[in-house]
């Protein structure tokens, strides 16, 4: 049974060093944080601990530096944003477990926080070798002194068997942060006991990334709306020509089986009926709306590619969403970063925001999309901080970080 954060605080943390695994893996434009949703989500647990007098050491990763110190993956911009939002002092170490981290952790005062540099700068963090990860975890634990504790508040990393997520929990008294417990509560309710109709919107580029999720949702969801690049493999499975659109030919047979199985198990798979057909993958590309059954017949022809769902599909998806009582959405349905191909994702976001359903935005690109398109977090029931972790939980996989906590 996982121990809750309240148990740690009730036992007294004043003057103690507490290692917190937070999720500060935010998108950056140079050194500017372009979506601070994960930083904001990490604040409540850090505030609870600092208010109780703990000396908090924050561990987090950013990107995939592959075990090398790489300035473009420095945690500093995210840490500085945390400092701007927090009402407690936030310091930043220039290394992970080096001299600066050790000196600043020793100098930390009650009610203050220190953000360690990107834990993935150390190759042992992500090592497949158990002993290597354990040695790194031991060095992290040593920063806490004799009476340290560990809190996992990074749901976005619980699907990783990494030193700061898995091995550290075996070395220190360990507790589940509020963010992780909330994510588990929301996702388990959505999957195991949703109010119906239960509608799932799946987007993104590759169908292969989400095959296991789709498989697990067949028979559970009432309707599964498929958009984004992954939809063209479904369209090809139905016999449509898709030009140069994203297509995974090796998955056509699997997708065909899903279409047949869904029909037998009462899940309606809803596919796009039209697309925004573009001459190239570019914000300035020539584009036109084409029906799915005649994508290559227009002026752009077979050299084109679908970069967004068309207006008829937008209306179709919105109709299903507005009739739902529970909505789970993961993945944009078009290239929302380009204005010409953002309307499909905007239409889905609008329908979800305006529906009476309990809605869950499944993290990652979906969360960035709704924020970048001008929607606020409070327009949705819950915005997950863990895209990959959310999907693996829905797949029914055992997540190492949760296993280490006893959850």
What tags apply to this protein structure?
407 residues; alpha/beta; Rossmann fold; 2 domains; six-stranded parallel sheet; 15 helices; elongated
General description of the model:
The chain is α/β, with parallel strands linked by helices and 407 residues long. It folds into two domains: 5-180, Rossmann fold, CATH 3.40.50.1260; 194-394, Rossmann fold (3-Layer(aba) Sandwich), CATH 3.40.50.1260. The protein has helices at residues 5-10, 37-51, 76-85, 99-107, 130-142, 163-167, 178-192, 211-217, 231-237, 252-265, 311-323, 343-354, 364-372, 387-395, 400-405, and strands at 17-21, 28-29, 32-33, 55-59, 90-92, 113-115, 149-152, 174-176, 198-202, 223-226, 268-270, 274-278, 287-291, 305-309, 326-330, 358-361, 382-383. The strands form four sheets. The chain has a six-stranded parallel sheet, with helices on both faces. β12 and β13 form a beta hairpin. α9 (231-237) packs across α10. The longest helix has 15 residues, at 37-51. The model has no long low-confidence stretch (mean pLDDT 94).
Write the layout of secondary structure elements.
Layout: H1 5-10, E1 17-21, E2 28-29, E3 32-33, H2 37-51, E4 55-59, H3 76-85, E5 90-92, H4 99-107, E6 113-115, H5 130-142, E7 149-152, H6 163-167, E8 174-176, H7 178-192, E9 198-202, H8 211-217, E10 223-226, H9 231-237, H10 252-265, E11 268-270, E12 274-278, E13 287-291, E14 305-309, H11 311-323, E15 326-330, H12 343-354, E16 358-361, H13 364-372, E17 382-383, H14 387-395, H15 400-405
Parallel strand pairs: 1-4, 1-7, 4-6, 5-6, 7-8, 9-10, 9-15, 10-11, 15-16, 16-17
Antiparallel strand pairs: 2-3, 12-13, 12-14
Helix pairs in contact: 8-14, 9-10, 11-12
């Amino acid at each position: 049974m996982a121990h809750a954060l309240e148990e740690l605080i009730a036992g007294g943390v004043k003057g103690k060093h507490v290692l917190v695994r937070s999720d500060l893996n935010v998108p950056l434009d140079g050194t500017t944080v372009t979506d601070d949703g994960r930083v904001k989500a990490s604040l409540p647990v850090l505030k609870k601990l600092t208010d109780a007098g703990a000396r908090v050491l924050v561990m987090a990763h950013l990107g995939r530096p592959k075990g090398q110190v790489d300035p473009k993956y420095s945690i500093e911009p995210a840490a500085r944003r945390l400092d701007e939002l927090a009402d407690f002092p936030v310091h930043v170490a220039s290394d992970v477990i080096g001299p600066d981290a050790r000196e600043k952790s020793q100098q930390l005062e009650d009610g203050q926080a220190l953000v360690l540099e990107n834990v993935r700068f150390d190759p042992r963090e992500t090592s497949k070798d158990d002993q290597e990860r354990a040695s790194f975890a031991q060095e992290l634990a040593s920063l806490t002194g004799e009476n340290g504790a560990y809190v996992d508040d990074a749901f976005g990393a619980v699907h990783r068997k990494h030193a700061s997520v898995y091995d550290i929990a075996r070395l220190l008294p360990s507790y589940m942060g509020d963010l992780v417990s909330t994510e588990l509560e929301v996702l388990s309710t959505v999957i195991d006991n949703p109010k119906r109709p239960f509608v799932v919107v799946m987007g993104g580029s590759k169908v292969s990334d989400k095959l296991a999720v789709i498989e697990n949702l067949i028979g559970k969801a009432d309707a599964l709306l498929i958009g984004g690049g992954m939809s063209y493999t479904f369209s090809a499975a139905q016999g449509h020509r898709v030009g140069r659109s994203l297509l995974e030919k090796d998955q056509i047979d699997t997708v065909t089986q899903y279409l047949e199985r869904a029909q037998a198990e009462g899940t309606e798979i809803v596919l796009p009926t039209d697309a925004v057909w573009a001459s190239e993958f570019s914000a300035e590309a020539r584009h036109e709306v084409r029906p799915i059954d005649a994508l290559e017949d227009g002026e752009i022809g077979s050299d084109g590619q679908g970069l967004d769902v068309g207006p008829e599909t937008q209306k179709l998806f919105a109709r299903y969403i507005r009739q739902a009582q529970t909505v789970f959405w993961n993945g944009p349905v078009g290239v929302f970063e380009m204005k010409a191909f953002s309307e499909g994702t905007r239409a889905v976001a609008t329908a979800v925001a305006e529906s009476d359903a309990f809605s869950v935005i499944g993290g990652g690109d979906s969360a960035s999309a709704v924020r970048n398109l001008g929607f606020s977090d409070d327009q949705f029931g819950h915005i997950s901080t863990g895209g990959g972790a959310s999907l693996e939980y829905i797949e029914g996989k055992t997540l190492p970080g949760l296993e280490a906590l006893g959850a």
